[in-house]
Every structure is written in structure tokens, then in C-alpha cells.
Design goal:
- By secondary structure, the protein is mostly helical.
- It is built from eleven helices and no strands.
- Helix 7 runs parallel beside helix 10.
């Protein structure tokens, strides 16, 4: 009986608990990556935080890189609405719409925590950075560029993203003052013209 129970814990879980277990592991992974970054996070640590055997983490997600990518994809999902935000008004106001959208995602505690995990990990580890680049390039920047219908659209989208990610990094991760405690509306007013220029100026 002991051997059977042990094998079940280490192997494939019953189907009835699969979805709940997978979600629990993913939530734990986001928290652990956020707290410790990519390099200092282990599959064993994720398993401990989720209250499962490490074999289950491997079963659902594979390697640590694959777990990180799954966690990033879920955390990054709100940002994928950015192309729709760009399309919801005139081109001359696209910089403000995108700036407000991005800072809105960062100001929301629910989305800020996993995004902090992504940025901290990507800055410090090349594997995590590669995952971040794949996701940003394939799922966000190309879609933003498609909305612009302008020459060098992908470069424009990347420059606008660099401006916004850089500002977010300084405000929410490095917490450089006075940017970290500055009024959000004042930041938006200052950043918007730069983003607008990247997206639409000749």
C-alpha cells in the first residue's frame, strides 16, 4: 500500500485533481520567481511552495525554463490587450493610450507582482531574458506593429516599448526617487510625447 501511494504521489496524478494541481503549481511558481528571481528559484522550491512533489512540477511543466515561460505567459496576458488599446482612437493619441495602458497594468497590484518577477529575472539571467524576448516579440510587439501600418513599424513598437519598460523598471523595480513616488499623471504627461514620437513621427 505504501509503495502504491508513493508511486501515485511521484507519478501521474488522478485526472480529477489535475487542473487544480496545475494551477496551484503555476501560482506558486509566480510567487517564488517574484521573490527569488530565476537563478535562485529551483523546481524543488516551487514544489515546496505548491505543496506537491517535485515530480509533479516536471510532469506538468517540464524544465525550470518551461515553468518560467508558462508563468510569464499567464502574467503577461493582460498586456496582450495593448494592440486593442492602440486601435481604440485616432493615431495622434496612440502614445497616450499605450502609455496609460502600460502604466495601468503596472499600477494594478494583481498584475504588478508577476511582472516584477519577469523583469527581475530577465535582467539577471539570459535564459529568462530569452523567454521574455520570445513572448514580447511574438505576442505583443508584432501585434502592436501591425496596428500602426507605418514604415519601420516593428522598430517603432520596440522603441516605444523600451521607453515604457525602462520607466517601469526605474519606478517599480529599482524604485529610483523621485520617479518611484512621483504622481502617475505627471509621469504619463512627460512620457506620452516620447512614446508618441517613436510610434508616429517620421
Amino acid at each position: 500500500m505504501t509503495g502504491t501511494a508513493g508511486a501515485r504521489r511521484r507519478g501521474r496524478p488522478p485526472r480529477t485533481e489535475s487542473a487544480d494541481t496545475r494551477d496551484r503549481i503555476l501560482a506558486a511558481a509566480r510567487e517564488v520567481f517574484s521573490e527569488h528571481g530565476y537563478e535562485k528559484t529551483s523546481v524543488r522550491g516551487i514544489a515546496k511552495a505548491a505543496g506537491v512533489d517535485a515530480a509533479l512540477v516536471h510532469h506538468y511543466f517540464g524544465t525550470k525554463e518551461q515553468i518560467f515561460e508558462a508563468a510569464v505567459a499567464v502574467a503577461f496576458a493582460p498586456a496582450l490587450d495593448a494592440p486593442e488599446a492602440l486601435a481604440a482612437g485616432p493615431l495622434e493619441e496612440v502614445g497616450e493610450r499605450l502609455t496609460r495602458f502600460v502604466f495601468g497594468v503596472w499600477e494594478n497590484p494583481t498584475t504588478r507582482t508577476p511582472l516584477l518577477a519577469i523583469l527581475r529575472s530577465a535582467v539577471n539571467n539570459e535564459t529568462a531574458a530569452a523567454v521574455f524576448r520570445r513572448l514580447v516579440s511574438a505576442q505583443l510587439l508584432r501585434r502592436v506593429a501591425a496596428q500602426l501600418e507605418l514604415p519601420d513599424a516593428e522598430l517603432r513598437a520596440e522603441l516605444a516599448a523600451a521607453q515604457l519598460v525602462g520607466a517601469a523598471l526605474m519606478r517599480y523595480v529599482i524604485k529610483l526617487e523621485p520617479l518611484a513616488s512621483a504622481d502617475l499623471e505627471s509621469i504619463i504627461r512627460r512620457v506620452t510625447p516620447v512614446v508618441q514620437g517613436h510610434l508616429t513621427q517620421p
